[in-house]
UniProtKB/TrEMBL annotation:
Residues 1-21 are annotated as: Disordered. This is Glycosyltransferase family 92 protein. Residues 1-16 have a biased composition (Polar residues). It is a single-pass membrane protein. The chain crosses the membrane at residues 43-61. InterPro entries: Glyco_transf_92. Keywords: Glycosyltransferase, Membrane, Transferase, Transmembrane, Transmembrane helix. Belongs to the glycosyltransferase 92 family. It comes from Camelina sativa (False flax).
Length: 588
């Protein structure tokens, strides 16, 4: 097999020139000869512009994005005050009431769309609502309240999560008060109730996971963009909520949204909240990022099991209709275990997973509800999968790894992907495969036989790449660009030639399927398509605007090469004749 070394570079944008307005000689003359008239016009213009400016500022203030952006400019409280201010409300004098309702200790964070994610504290035992009468409720100051709707149970700490709407009166209130979660809407608040400031989703410690040697925190806010990583010595990890007893340990790595720190130097017997603290400098005080994450002294992440040679992981949202095809195909060519990071799906994903598991496919669902955290999720998978996987393939569910060498194979083999990887003695720690991007191919809805059968027309130029990485070779920082990882110094990264292996990316699908991409982008560093920003980014679709409006001729776009190779191969491997044609194995 021939492999070639790849060098990646990032495209740079060239700023456009801005043409200035020319002067008007007649207007200038009028200025000098009619000063009184000029002043009148100036006064009129002033009274027009001031209300417009105030209206614009008010509109910006009312926007939910304003609150999210505000975290980048707000001055954080000193560490001692900050930790205390985010302690969960435990001071009610009547947490349990005669009517059977009770206050539930919980953390909360403001979510996009004026929702609040409420996460029950580890010491509370709260099960998902089972009966119609179980009316979990969020209470706010001044008697406002909202129904707490069950979301899911956190997989590692077993914490129940709810979602509450934020009443309109608080949407323009800064800071926003953290609601009190109660088991009934008849709960009566104590006059002693405290209302700590509500953390925002883009400035918070949102997850923590332990390895054999350290603790990994996932944090939004401190490193705000690509290449803006602050040095690790700028931070400390803080274990515990009380300032005088909290344990502080040094941070050993600070890259993107991933921070690694040493274990506490004292034993911790029960789960404790863990924070990220910015160390004081000559110009600034010590400050702390709020947290909804807990450090658990029990490190076991998965049940003991034999280590798999090849695993695959992906982050998904509402992909139930695609998952069977993706899993069945890749399992047949060598993937032994699938780790699915669910980014808050509300379709039939869990049902599809359970059916696949009943058919003896090895699938694990990891609830990963945090918005715009794909890079952090993939870094988390590198830690989470390290105990049970040797190599990890990072691939989306609309992407299929394929080798032209398999064309003459009558059946798939579980050694096929293995044949694309280096030997055990190699210094290669990562193999990447270039992508072919397929277009709508005149489809108007999801092909019932699957994407490999329905989409057959693609762009000619290779686009990006996806990778299979040796998890033990991933560098300490866990840096990932989604398409590949940073490697330890002794390992090399190589890219396979397209004649050896390629990824068929069924990216531009039938419009009814494709427009769902406007709802969300999961990468932390990719602008949402509805934002009028960075229009020439490679992460945008050529010729597509900022709104989910079907462009003319969408069905014929991106059709430069007719490519039937994987369609023919999968039909040979997974199709069987039926009365009106053929049926694929993943069809139900």
């Amino acid at each position: 097999m021939t492999l070639s070394l790849k060098t990646c570079s990032s495209p740079r944008s060239t700023p456009k020139s801005i043409a200035g307005a020319g002067s008007d000689d007649a207007a200038a003359s009028q200025f000098f000869h009619h000063k009184t008239s000029y002043r009148a016009h100036t006064t009129t213009l002033f009274f027009i512009l001031v209300p417009l400016s105030l209206f614009g500022l008010f509109s910006l203030y009312c926007s939910p994005n304003t609150i999210y952006r505000a975290t980048f400019f707000v001055t954080a409280l000193p560490a001692k005050s900050r930790i205390v201010s985010y302690v969960t409300n435990t001071q009610d004098s009547n947490p349990n009431q005669s009517n059977g309702s009770r206050r539930i200790r919980a953390d909360a964070v403001l979510w996009p769309g004026w929702n609040i994610l409420v996460i029950v504290s580890p010491e509370e035992k709260v099960l998902p609502p089972q009966l119609p009468g179980e009316n979990y409720t969020c209470f706010y100051p001044n008697g406002e309240k909202a129904t707490a709707r069950f979301v899911a149970t956190h997989p590692f700490t077993n914490r129940t999560t709810f979602r509450c709407g934020l009443p309109g009166i608080y949407r323009h209130h800064h800071p926003i008060p953290t609601p009190v979660l109660a088991s009934s809407k008849t709960f009566e608040l104590s006059p002693e109730t405290r209302w700590p400031d509500l953390p925002l989703w883009n400035f918070v410690v949102f997850e923590a996971i332990s390895t054999e040697n350290d603790v990994v925190l996932f944090v939004k806010g401190p490193n705000r963009g690509l290449g803006s990583n602050k040095p690790p010595e700028s931070f400390r990890c803080v274990f515990g909520e009380e300032s005088d007893t909290a344990i502080r340990t040094p941070v050993t790595s600070s890259v993107q949204e991933v921070f690694r720190c040493s274990f506490p130097n004292k034993p911790i017997d029960t789960p404790v909240k863990v924070y990220l603290e910015a160390v004081a400098t000559d110009k600034e005080e010590t400050k702390t990022v709020p947290s909804v994450a807990y450090f658990s002294p029990k490190r076991t992440l998965t049940e003991p099991r034999k280590k798999s040679l090849l695993c695959a992981t992906t982050m998904v949202y509402n992909v139930a209709k695609y998952l069977r095809e993706w899993v069945m195909y890749h399992a047949a060519i060598g993937i032994q275990r699938f780790i699915i990071y669910d980014n808050g799906s509300d379709d039939e994903l869990n049902d599809v997973v359970e059916v696949l598991k009943s058919e003896k496919y090895d699938l694990t669902i990891v609830l990963w509800i945090w918005p715009k955290t794909q890079e952090a999720g993939f870094s988390h998978a590198a830690v989470y999968g390290n105990d049970t996987c040797t190599w990890m393939m990072y691939l989306d569910v609309d992407e299929f790894l394929f080798s032209p060498f398999w064309d003459n194979k009558s059946q798939p083999s579980d050694q096929m992907i293995r044949s694309l990887l280096p030997s055990d003695q190699s210094i290669i720690g990562q193999v990447s495969f270039k992508s072919h991007e397929f277009g709508p191919s005149n489809q108007t809805k999801h092909p019932r036989e699957g994407v490999t059968q329905g989409y057959t027309c693609r762009r000619e130029e290779d686009q990006r790449h996806k990778s299979i990485v040796l998890l033990s070779a991933v560098e300490h920082s866990l840096y990932t660009a989604i398409h590949h990882f940073g490697l330890k110094g002794e390992y090399e990264w190589r890219v396979a030639d397209t004649e050896e292996g390629v990824v068929n990316h069924y990216k531009y699908q039938a419009w009814q399927e494709f427009k769902a991409k406007f709802k969300r982008r999961v990468s932390a560093y990719v602008v949402d398509w509805t934002r009028v920003s960075n229009p020439k980014s490679r992460d945008r679709t050529p010729g597509l605007g900022f709104r989910p409006i079907e462009p003319e001729g969408w069905g014929q776009r991106f059709c430069e090469v007719k490519d039937l190779r994987l369609k023919r191969l999968t039909r040979k491997w997974f199709g069987h004749p039926v009365k009106d044609g053929y049926k694929m194995a993943w069809q139900r």
